[in-house]
Amino acid sequence: MSAFDSTEAAPELVRAAVGVPPRPIRARLVTTVVAYGTLAVVTCLLAPLVGSTPISFSRVFDRSIPFIDNVDAQIFFVARMPRVLAGAVVGAALASAGVVLQALLRNPLATPFTLGVSAGAALGAILAISFGAAISFGPFSPVPFATLVGAILAASIVYGLATKPGRAMSTSVLLLAGVTLNSFFSALILFVQYMSDFTETFRTVRWLMGDLDIGSFSPVLGALPLLLAAFAVFAMLPSSLNLLSVGAEQAATRGVDVARVQRLAFVSSALATAAAVSLAGPIGFVGIVVPHLVRLMVGVDHRIVLPASAFFGAAFLVACDVVARTVLAPVEVPVGVVTAMLGGPFFLWLLVRKS
Hints:
Layout: H1 9-17, H2 25-46, H3 57-60, H4 71-105, H5 117-131, H6 142-162, H7 171-195, H8 198-208, H9 218-234, H10 238-246, H11 248-253, H12 258-280, H13 286-298, H14 302-326, H15 335-354
Helix pairs in contact: 1-10, 2-14, 4-9, 4-10, 4-12, 4-13, 4-14, 5-6, 5-7, 5-8, 5-12, 6-7, 6-12, 9-12, 10-14, 13-14, 14-15
């Protein structure tokens, strides 16, 4: 059951927020973290073993073979593990941001890309790809930096439009501003592609499909500060999100600083989305598919849903990337295509279910 499927969810969310969950919260939380954490770890360990070149898990960790001579270990740790870790952090970030935004906007169809952050990041990346030859960052690509700048710019515009001093954030303005900004930035992206040559256009189209073609651990490490900041804020929000999902008025009457929680939810989800897009491009549907699947399994309490979604999102995107790498091997399909093919029908199912 989704938190937004019926009014029956409201009493459960209120009970959870005020400390009267159906089972002791600590036991449920430990069980959830262990179960979904194990799923994520096992998926991340098994995923590098799958590919066009088969490798042996035992040989990978065979210390009797020098690393320089151990081809299996080189493929596992150098060629595939950075990609797997990137998929895990991107999946966790997008799924968690989806949970937070659905509670913030009280909209089960909200995603991390609803608020224009993804479109701003994409515009920054497209400009860097098209005109990056004139920008030098030493040995580093300007694309991730430009992606972060575009995402932060878009988030700042939406935030500025939706907030007024001393008042709670207007979620309706937030949503409308995000949709409008998405359309505006998408038009700019099309204009830049139209003005670019064939090679640049091909690169931009490929990036817009979403891809986890990570060749080292450096991009993941570069995105970690934003991700850690976002998840630190996420950890403070679940109880407030339970009440905010029922309504801002009800949350305020129970002592929630609605304006502060709304701002923290928006900023943290924007940071997580910006970091994810800078790593892998705009990979869609993870932020809507994973939260709803998790709610079907664990209920609607955000104290359980949020960590479960993070771990399940990591496992989900890593598994999708395995499919992307192997379904047409040796040709690789962008992982964004795989998530869209899975998420599109799921999105339509949600619409039909709620109609």
